[in-house]
Amino acid sequence: MPGPVRVRKPQRLLIPAYFRATNGLWHTTCDAVVQRRATATLVMNPDSGPGAGTDENYRLAMDYCHARGQTVVGYVTTDHANRPVGDVTADIDRWYQLYPGVRGVFLDEMSNHDDGDSRAYYSQLYRLVKQRSSQHQVVGNPGIAATTPWQVTTPVVDVLVVFEGPFQRRRPNDAATPYRDWRPPSWVASRSAGFFAHIVYESPDPATTRAICVESWGNRNAGWIYVTPDGRPNPFDQIPDAALLSSPTLHRP
User: What is the pTM of this model?
Assistant: First the structure.
Protein backbone atom coordinates (compact mmCIF):
# COMPACT_ATOMS: atom_id res chain seq x y z
CA MET A 1 0.00 0.00 0.00
CA PRO A 2 2.64 2.66 0.86
CA GLY A 3 4.01 4.69 -2.02
CA PRO A 4 6.79 7.27 -2.25
CA VAL A 5 6.18 10.50 -0.38
CA ARG A 6 6.45 13.47 -2.73
CA VAL A 7 8.75 16.29 -1.70
CA ARG A 8 6.40 19.08 -0.67
CA LYS A 9 5.09 20.76 2.45
CA PRO A 10 4.28 18.39 5.33
CA GLN A 11 0.82 16.96 5.67
CA ARG A 12 -1.39 18.68 8.23
CA LEU A 13 -3.78 17.14 10.73
CA LEU A 14 -7.54 17.68 10.62
CA ILE A 15 -8.68 16.39 14.00
CA PRO A 16 -12.42 15.80 14.69
CA ALA A 17 -11.89 16.46 18.39
CA TYR A 18 -15.27 15.23 19.57
CA PHE A 19 -14.00 14.35 23.03
CA ARG A 20 -14.83 16.44 26.07
CA ALA A 21 -12.64 19.38 26.99
CA THR A 22 -12.05 17.94 30.44
CA ASN A 23 -9.30 15.92 32.10
CA GLY A 24 -6.71 17.76 30.02
CA LEU A 25 -7.52 15.82 26.83
CA TRP A 26 -7.35 18.87 24.58
CA HIS A 27 -4.15 20.04 26.28
CA THR A 28 -2.63 16.59 25.79
CA THR A 29 -3.61 16.58 22.12
CA CYS A 30 -2.17 20.02 21.35
CA ASP A 31 1.02 19.27 23.29
CA ALA A 32 1.49 16.03 21.33
CA VAL A 33 1.00 17.81 17.99
CA VAL A 34 3.54 20.47 18.93
CA GLN A 35 6.05 17.90 20.17
CA ARG A 36 5.88 16.16 16.80
CA ARG A 37 6.50 19.51 15.06
CA ALA A 38 3.18 19.10 13.25
CA THR A 39 0.33 21.48 12.42
CA ALA A 40 -3.33 20.80 13.16
CA THR A 41 -6.81 22.16 12.78
CA LEU A 42 -9.02 20.81 15.56
CA VAL A 43 -12.79 20.68 15.21
CA MET A 44 -14.55 21.68 18.44
CA ASN A 45 -18.02 20.26 19.06
CA PRO A 46 -19.51 20.92 22.51
CA ASP A 47 -23.11 19.99 21.65
CA SER A 48 -23.54 19.06 17.96
CA GLY A 49 -22.57 22.68 17.43
CA PRO A 50 -21.72 25.56 19.77
CA GLY A 51 -24.40 24.83 22.35
CA ALA A 52 -26.58 27.34 24.15
CA GLY A 53 -23.86 28.95 26.26
CA THR A 54 -20.12 29.18 26.69
CA ASP A 55 -18.49 26.12 28.22
CA GLU A 56 -15.44 27.42 30.03
CA ASN A 57 -13.58 24.14 29.57
CA TYR A 58 -13.84 24.46 25.79
CA ARG A 59 -12.92 28.13 25.84
CA LEU A 60 -9.77 27.42 27.82
CA ALA A 61 -8.92 24.46 25.58
CA MET A 62 -9.29 26.64 22.49
CA ASP A 63 -7.06 29.35 23.94
CA TYR A 64 -4.47 26.74 24.95
CA CYS A 65 -4.28 25.28 21.43
CA HIS A 66 -4.17 28.68 19.74
CA ALA A 67 -1.33 29.73 22.02
CA ARG A 68 0.61 26.72 20.72
CA GLY A 69 0.18 27.58 17.08
CA GLN A 70 -2.76 25.30 16.28
CA THR A 71 -6.17 26.25 14.81
CA VAL A 72 -9.59 25.54 16.31
CA VAL A 73 -12.79 25.70 14.23
CA GLY A 74 -16.38 25.14 15.29
CA TYR A 75 -18.62 22.26 14.23
CA VAL A 76 -21.84 23.13 12.35
CA THR A 77 -24.14 20.63 10.66
CA THR A 78 -25.92 21.51 7.40
CA ASP A 79 -27.85 18.26 6.75
CA HIS A 80 -26.82 18.20 3.08
CA ALA A 81 -28.30 21.71 2.57
CA ASN A 82 -31.66 20.55 3.96
CA ARG A 83 -31.24 22.48 7.19
CA PRO A 84 -32.63 26.03 6.88
CA VAL A 85 -29.76 28.33 6.04
CA GLY A 86 -30.94 30.76 8.73
CA ASP A 87 -30.43 28.07 11.39
CA VAL A 88 -26.92 27.38 10.10
CA THR A 89 -25.96 31.05 10.02
CA ALA A 90 -27.32 31.38 13.56
CA ASP A 91 -25.00 28.58 14.67
CA ILE A 92 -22.04 30.27 13.00
CA ASP A 93 -22.88 33.59 14.65
CA ARG A 94 -23.28 31.81 18.00
CA TRP A 95 -19.82 30.28 17.65
CA TYR A 96 -18.31 33.73 17.32
CA GLN A 97 -20.43 35.12 20.15
CA LEU A 98 -19.72 32.32 22.64
CA TYR A 99 -16.14 31.59 21.58
CA PRO A 100 -14.68 34.81 20.11
CA GLY A 101 -11.34 33.10 19.52
CA VAL A 102 -12.75 30.55 17.06
CA ARG A 103 -11.01 30.66 13.68
CA GLY A 104 -13.58 29.27 11.30
CA VAL A 105 -16.11 26.48 10.93
CA PHE A 106 -16.38 22.83 9.97
CA LEU A 107 -19.50 22.38 7.82
CA ASP A 108 -20.55 18.78 8.33
CA GLU A 109 -22.97 16.83 6.12
CA MET A 110 -22.20 19.11 3.20
CA SER A 111 -24.23 18.60 0.05
CA ASN A 112 -22.47 16.76 -2.77
CA HIS A 113 -24.97 18.05 -5.34
CA ASP A 114 -23.54 20.44 -7.90
CA ASP A 115 -26.55 22.66 -8.48
CA GLY A 116 -27.50 26.30 -8.15
CA ASP A 117 -29.27 25.85 -4.82
CA SER A 118 -26.28 24.15 -3.19
CA ARG A 119 -23.89 26.74 -4.56
CA ALA A 120 -26.01 29.61 -3.24
CA TYR A 121 -26.51 27.93 0.15
CA TYR A 122 -22.83 27.27 0.85
CA SER A 123 -21.62 30.50 -0.75
CA GLN A 124 -23.67 32.41 1.81
CA LEU A 125 -22.06 30.46 4.66
CA TYR A 126 -18.57 30.91 3.19
CA ARG A 127 -19.03 34.68 2.89
CA LEU A 128 -20.34 34.88 6.45
CA VAL A 129 -17.15 33.33 7.83
CA LYS A 130 -14.84 35.33 5.55
CA GLN A 131 -16.53 38.55 6.65
CA ARG A 132 -15.26 37.76 10.13
CA SER A 133 -11.74 37.30 8.81
CA SER A 134 -10.35 36.37 5.42
CA GLN A 135 -7.88 34.17 7.30
CA HIS A 136 -10.55 32.08 8.99
CA GLN A 137 -10.96 28.55 7.71
CA VAL A 138 -14.02 26.88 6.18
CA VAL A 139 -13.80 23.08 6.05
CA GLY A 140 -16.51 21.14 4.22
CA ASN A 141 -17.30 17.50 4.90
CA PRO A 142 -19.94 15.61 2.87
CA GLY A 143 -19.44 12.63 5.20
CA ILE A 144 -19.11 10.41 2.13
CA ALA A 145 -16.68 10.45 -0.77
CA ALA A 146 -16.90 13.76 -2.64
CA THR A 147 -17.98 13.26 -6.25
CA THR A 148 -17.44 16.61 -8.02
CA PRO A 149 -15.02 19.53 -7.49
CA TRP A 150 -17.61 22.29 -7.27
CA GLN A 151 -16.97 22.93 -3.58
CA VAL A 152 -13.37 23.99 -4.29
CA THR A 153 -13.96 25.65 -7.67
CA THR A 154 -16.90 27.85 -6.62
CA PRO A 155 -15.32 28.22 -3.94
CA VAL A 156 -17.36 27.50 -0.83
CA VAL A 157 -14.61 25.86 1.27
CA ASP A 158 -10.90 26.18 1.91
CA VAL A 159 -10.53 22.46 2.65
CA LEU A 160 -12.78 19.66 1.38
CA VAL A 161 -12.95 16.25 3.04
CA VAL A 162 -13.06 14.05 -0.04
CA PHE A 163 -13.08 10.84 2.00
CA GLU A 164 -14.52 9.89 5.39
CA GLY A 165 -14.97 6.25 6.25
CA PRO A 166 -13.46 3.04 7.66
CA PHE A 167 -10.22 1.52 6.47
CA GLN A 168 -11.98 -1.72 5.55
CA ARG A 169 -15.46 -3.21 5.68
CA ARG A 170 -16.44 -4.29 9.16
CA ARG A 171 -18.79 -6.98 7.87
CA PRO A 172 -19.90 -8.16 4.39
CA ASN A 173 -23.04 -5.96 4.38
CA ASP A 174 -21.21 -2.85 5.62
CA ALA A 175 -22.47 0.02 3.43
CA ALA A 176 -19.56 2.35 4.20
CA THR A 177 -16.97 2.87 1.47
CA PRO A 178 -13.64 1.39 2.70
CA TYR A 179 -10.50 3.47 2.29
CA ARG A 180 -8.51 0.40 1.29
CA ASP A 181 -10.57 0.12 -1.93
CA TRP A 182 -11.26 3.83 -2.60
CA ARG A 183 -9.33 6.00 -5.04
CA PRO A 184 -9.83 9.75 -5.38
CA PRO A 185 -11.53 11.07 -8.54
CA SER A 186 -9.24 12.36 -11.26
CA TRP A 187 -9.93 16.02 -10.53
CA VAL A 188 -8.22 15.72 -7.15
CA ALA A 189 -4.82 15.06 -8.73
CA SER A 190 -4.98 18.26 -10.78
CA ARG A 191 -5.32 20.55 -7.76
CA SER A 192 -3.23 21.47 -4.75
CA ALA A 193 -3.14 18.86 -2.00
CA GLY A 194 -3.90 21.66 0.44
CA PHE A 195 -7.54 21.59 -0.69
CA PHE A 196 -8.12 17.97 0.31
CA ALA A 197 -8.52 15.99 3.52
CA HIS A 198 -9.00 12.29 4.30
CA ILE A 199 -10.57 11.05 7.54
CA VAL A 200 -10.11 7.32 8.12
CA TYR A 201 -11.32 5.37 11.14
CA GLU A 202 -11.07 1.76 12.34
CA SER A 203 -7.42 1.42 11.41
CA PRO A 204 -6.52 -2.10 12.57
CA ASP A 205 -2.98 -1.43 13.83
CA PRO A 206 -0.24 1.22 14.09
CA ALA A 207 1.57 0.04 10.96
CA THR A 208 -1.61 0.47 8.91
CA THR A 209 -2.19 3.94 10.35
CA ARG A 210 1.25 5.08 9.24
CA ALA A 211 0.81 3.38 5.85
CA ILE A 212 -2.48 5.24 5.31
CA CYS A 213 -0.75 8.56 5.97
CA VAL A 214 2.04 7.77 3.51
CA GLU A 215 -0.39 6.52 0.87
CA SER A 216 -2.75 9.47 1.28
CA TRP A 217 0.11 11.94 0.89
CA GLY A 218 2.22 10.20 -1.68
CA ASN A 219 -0.43 8.79 -4.02
CA ARG A 220 -3.84 10.30 -3.19
CA ASN A 221 -3.00 14.03 -2.93
CA ALA A 222 -4.33 14.65 0.59
CA GLY A 223 -2.76 17.64 2.28
CA TRP A 224 -4.79 16.97 5.43
CA ILE A 225 -5.17 13.66 7.26
CA TYR A 226 -6.76 12.04 10.27
CA VAL A 227 -6.50 8.32 10.99
CA THR A 228 -7.74 6.59 14.13
CA PRO A 229 -8.23 3.04 15.44
CA ASP A 230 -11.44 4.28 17.06
CA GLY A 231 -14.61 2.70 15.70
CA ARG A 232 -18.31 3.22 15.17
CA PRO A 233 -20.77 4.41 16.33
CA ASN A 234 -18.57 7.39 17.30
CA PRO A 235 -15.07 7.01 15.89
CA PHE A 236 -13.97 10.47 17.04
CA ASP A 237 -14.28 10.32 20.83
CA GLN A 238 -10.62 9.45 21.47
CA ILE A 239 -7.56 11.66 21.27
CA PRO A 240 -5.14 11.08 18.34
CA ASP A 241 -2.97 8.03 18.86
CA ALA A 242 0.82 7.79 18.72
CA ALA A 243 0.86 5.98 15.37
CA LEU A 244 -0.80 8.92 13.62
CA LEU A 245 1.43 11.47 15.31
CA SER A 246 4.55 9.51 14.36
CA SER A 247 3.75 9.59 10.63
CA PRO A 248 6.75 10.83 8.61
CA THR A 249 4.38 12.88 6.44
CA LEU A 250 3.67 15.31 9.31
CA HIS A 251 7.16 16.41 10.20
CA ARG A 252 8.28 19.97 9.70
CA PRO A 253 11.97 20.49 8.92
Answer: 0.94
